[in-house]
Design a protein that fits this description.
The chain has helices at residues 2-8, 17-23, 39-42, 44-47, 77-86, 108-114, 130-135, 148-151, 157-163, 177-181, 191-201, 208-216, 221-243, and strands spanning 13-14, 31-32, 63-67, 91-95, 119-123, 139-142, 167-171, 186-188. By secondary structure, the chain is of the alpha/beta class. The strands form 2 sheets. Strands 5-4-3-6-7-8 form a 6-stranded parallel beta sheet, sandwiched between helices. The longest helix has 23 residues, at 221-243. It is globular, with a radius of gyration of 20 Å.
């Protein structure tokens, strides 16, 4: 079905470099249109004095945060367990649903994580409220498993985190490596390395927040939509010429 769609489409977009490479076997003209973020919204975590949400009040000042679906098919709970065990002074804040898309019961590691004393589980929060939570954390996490699903992913949360000025620690996956080589994020291959990277990130100077926001500016939805519309227009023009 995918091959039939690729052959029929006038324009093909891929949301990550690895996915673009795979689709390119069938459509060499596919275009990379990686996920982007609402930079203006999340940038408020850097540019505005947003008050600390009441749910964070009283928590230890050192905080790491994960925003997203805590699903066993994509989340490596052992990475998160390593963080909270290695840094007992650190509070891990989890924002989002749990288990969406999973088949079967939660993993033992996931259940153990949620029971740890330095883990705060908040559940889903409206997107408009997220900048206030991110402003009052220091490190943002992308604790993905290494599998076919995650290797093809370049999640929009990456640019949301960076727009909010946070240090980012992610699983070492192909789509993250160029950003790690650039020094924009940190990556690790195993639980020990992941926990060590979080410890390093906690020592980042505050002025890096503004630099990360500046780097995220080029990955905003407005600029992305302009690129997408231009590509669609070219594709439709080519189709009209072919039909004539």
């Amino acid at each position: 079905m995918e091959r039939r769609m690729l052959r029929r489409a006038d324009v093909v977009f891929a949301t990550s470099p690895l996915l673009a490479e795979r689709l390119g076997a069938e459509r060499p003209d596919d275009e990379l249109a990686a996920n982007v973020a609402d930079v203006d919204l999340f940038g408020r975590a850097v540019t505005e004095e947003l008050p600390e949400p009441g749910e964070l009040s009283g928590l230890p000042p050192q905080r790491a945060v994960y925003v997203g679906n805590l699903a066993s098919y994509r989340t490596d709970f052992d990475l998160l367990l390593a963080v909270v065990r290695s840094h007992p002074q650190l509070q891990l804040v989890l924002i989002g649903v749990a288990g969406l898309g999973d088949v079967g019961a939660a993993s033992d590691s996931g259940s153990e994580l949620l029971a740890m004393p330095n883990v705060t589980v908040l559940g889903p929060r409206p997107q408009r409220d997220l900048p206030a939570y991110l402003r009052h954390c220091q490190v943002a996490l992308i604790p993905f498993l290494d599998n076919s699903h995650t290797r093809a992913s370049l999640p929009l949360k990456l640019w949301e985190y960076l727009a909010a000025g946070l240090a980012v620690v992610a699983r070492d996956l192909p789509n993250f490596r160029s950003l790690a080589e650039e020094g924009l994020i940190r990556t690790a291959r195993d639980p020990r390395g992941f926990a060590d990277a979080v410890g390093e990130a906690l020592g980042d100077p505050p002025e890096l927040r503004a630099q990360r926001l500046a780097r995220a500016r080029g990955h905003d939805w407005r600029a992305q939509m302009e690129r997408l519309c231009s590509s669609v227009e070219r594709g439709l023009d080519s189709r009209s010429e072919w039909q004539q």
